[in-house]
Amino acid sequence: MKLTQENYFSPEADREYLSVSQYKKFVGTMGRVGCEAEAMACLNGEWAMKKTTSLLVGSYVDAHFEGTLDLFKAQNPDIFTKQGTLKAEYRRAEEVINRIERDDYFMLHMQGEKQVIMTGELFGAEWKIKMDSYFPDTLIVDLKCMKSLREANWVKDSGYMNFITYWGYDLQGAIYQKIVEINTGKKLPVKIAAASKEEYPDIAVIQVEQSLMDAALAEVESNVPKILALKNGEIEPLRCEMCDYCKHTRVLTHSIWTEDLLGEV
Ligand SMILES: [Zn+2]
To answer: Keywords, A to Z (predicted)?
Structure first.
């Protein structure tokens, strides 16, 4: 199928193409455990991931810089109160936008081509990507709206991590860089233009080290065969037993011990 802005996020497109967000649903990141059962249920149309407020605030900011905020507001009436004013979280999003627009260097990075879609074959899978701000032959920029930019996230056995590695944005950069290279022959640097949702929004333009993206890409390569086998129905998906989907579909067959409640913490 030919991908457009309208069908990019459709279940059909997700079944035909692999994407970074779909990959993360299957495999997870340091910050979130993946769940094969949930990912497959999404693809089969049996389950939809909840649109969290945090996610919607990010989409609100994205939509502003994409020039599609009016459409976004029309499609998400829940962001308004009964009185028709923006809910507090989205007023905060407005403040984030204002903060970003006050910074020339940040804004320079938002001047690329918006929401550029590309596809390409990598590791035996057909991938789709959609770039926030793309400067052909020069640079790939992704816009991120985070709780905090400087917060250290604790990961067992690995220690503290910044938000980029914690949420797999290095992996996203690696895939975007590779698919662009497959399409254009040019290997471009990747930057994350990030803002926080704090009372005084923090801002930064962060270039992702090539070494991080190389390591992330190697990890993707090792995981893609299993994802393809799952999508083709060749193997049964594993349940994580922690996500909303697993909780919703859990069938009890026996009792557990108190010590089982915390699992491997
Ligand atoms: Zn699960």
So the answer is: Hydrolase
Residue 75, CA atoms < 13 Å, CB-side half-sphere: 10
Buried b (16+ CB within 10 A) or exposed e, 79-102: beeeeeeeeeebebbebbbebbee
Ligand 1 centroid–CA 26 distance in Å is 10
Spacing, Cα 194 to ligand 1 middle (Å) = 29
Q: What is the pLDDT along the chain (265 residues), one digit of tens a residue?
A: 999 999 999 989 999 999 999 999 999 999 889 999 999 999 999 999 888 888 899 999 999 999 999 999 999 999 999 999 999 999 999 999 999 999 999 999 999 999 999 999 999 999 999 999 999 999 999 999 999 999 999 998 889 999 999 999 999 999 999 999 999 999 999 999 999 999 999 999 999 999 999 999 999 999 999 999 999 999 999 999 999 999 999 999 999 999 988 876 5
CA 182 to ligand 1 center in whole angstroms: 33
Q: Dihedral of the CA atoms 251, 253, 259, 265 (nearest 10)?
A: -40
**Is 11-50+103-260 CATH 3.50.50.60?**
no
Instruction: Return the closest-CA partner of residue 169 out of 10, 6, 24, 1.
Output: 24
* Six token digits for residue 40: 């497959």
165: amino acid identity, one letter? T
